[in-house]
Amino acid sequence: MIWLIIPAFILLVAAGLLLLPVECVVDTRIPALYAKWAILKVTITYLNNEWRLCYSILFFKNTVTLARKAQPASKKNIATGKKKATSKRSLKIKKMWRVIKTVRVTRWQLALDTGDWVVNGWLYPLNFLPALQHHVCINFKGENYLFLRLKCIPLQALLALIK
Questions:
Q1: 111, 143 in Cβ contact below 8 A?
Q2: What is the per-residue pLDDT across 23-73, written as a single tens digit (0 to 9) for each?
Q3: How crowded is the C-beta side of 129, counted as CA atoms within 13 Å?
Q4: In a 10 Å sphere around its CB, with 0-12 CB exposed, 13-18 middle and 19+ buried, how is residue 109 labelled?
Q5: How far apart are CA 107 and CA 137, in angstroms?
Q6: Are 161 and 98 contacting, i.e. CB atoms less than 8 angstroms apart?
Q7: pTM to 2 decimals?
Q8: How far apart are alpha carbons 153 and 106 in whole angstroms?
C-alpha cells in the first residue's frame, strides 16, 4: 500500500508544480530580472560592472557571479551545393510561437524620451490614448525605462510545445 502512496504523492506534487504560475519581472530602472515559481526564486542583477545570479530554494540561498566566457573565433561555413531543409526550421518557429503565446503580460510600463524634441512632440499624444494611458509615458525629462511583469503556467507551455 505504501508503494502506491509514495509515487502518487510525488506525481501529485509534480502536477501541482506544473499548475503553479511562473512570474517574471523585468525592470530596467534598476538592471534586474526576477523570476519566481513556487519555492524557487531567481534574481539576476548588474552591480559594479558584473552580473550576479541570486537564487533561493526554500531556505537555501546562494549568490553566483557570472563571468564572461571568451568566445572562440567563429568558423566560416564553406558553401556547398546542397540546400538545407527549411521545413524543420518553420516547424520550430511555429512551435516557439505557440509557446510564446502562452505567456501573459500582466503589467507593463514604458517611459520614453527620444532626445529629439520634435519626435517627442509627435509621440506625446500617445500618453492620452485610452488603451495606453497608464502604460506609456512619452516625456521630455530624459527618463527611459521598461517595466514588464509576465506570467506563464508551465503546463500550458509544455502542452504548446508538445502540440
A1: yes
A2: 999 999 988 899 998 888 999 998 888 899 999 998 899 999 987 655 666
A3: 10
A4: middle
A5: 14
A6: yes
A7: 0.71
A8: 13
